[in-house]
């Protein structure tokens, strides 16, 4: 079996890093992890955010349950060579 960790995050603080010409070249951000949302994989609830989910090896489409206040709306991932200690981590951002 393979392992996946899904997070829904909200940016608490964001500071743009600007070069000498005023162009944004990076960002420093502090994230807050949000909880209590179901994770839907293959059209079925497979677990909750911030909990490790055990899945078959292969390609999966992941989304976070409603309300739809996050991006992306869904994410295609490939699970291979993961462990419960080192799962694949995907992040959805609250908008």
Low-confidence segments: none
Cα end-to-end separation: 33 Å
Describe the main β-sheet briefly. Answer: 5 strands, mixed
What structural class should be given to the helix and strand makeup? mainly beta
Could you give the order of the helices and strands? Answer: EEEEEEEEE
CATH fold node name of the domain at 2-7 and 36-94: Immunoglobulin-like
The CATH class designation of the domain at 2-7 and 36-94 is Mainly Beta
If you had to describe this structure to a student in words, what would you say it looks like?
By secondary structure, the chain is mainly β. The protein has a domain at 2-7 and 36-94: Sandwich (Immunoglobulin-like). Helices cover 0% and strands 65% of the residues. The chain has no helices and nine strands. It has strands spanning 2-18, 24-34, 38-41, 44-48, 52-55, 58-64, 70-71, 75-79, 88-94. The strands form two sheets. Strands 1, 2, 5, 7 and 9 form a five-stranded mixed beta sheet that branches. A four-stranded antiparallel beta sheet has the order 4-3-6-8, with no helix packed on it. Strand 3 (38-41) and strand 4 form a beta hairpin. The mean pLDDT is 92.
């Amino acid at each position: 079996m393979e392992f996946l960790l899904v997070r829904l995050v909200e940016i608490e603080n964001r500071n743009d890093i600007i070069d000498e010409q005023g162009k944004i070249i990076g960002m420093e951000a502090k994230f807050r992890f949000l909880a209590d949302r179901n994770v839907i994989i293959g059209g079925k609830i497979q677990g909750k955010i911030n909990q490790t989910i055990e899945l078959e090896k292969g390609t999966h489409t992941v989304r976070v349950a409603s309300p739809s206040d996050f991006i992306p709306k869904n994410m295609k991932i490939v699970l291979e060579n993961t462990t419960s200690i080192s799962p694949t981590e995907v992040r959805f951002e609250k908008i």
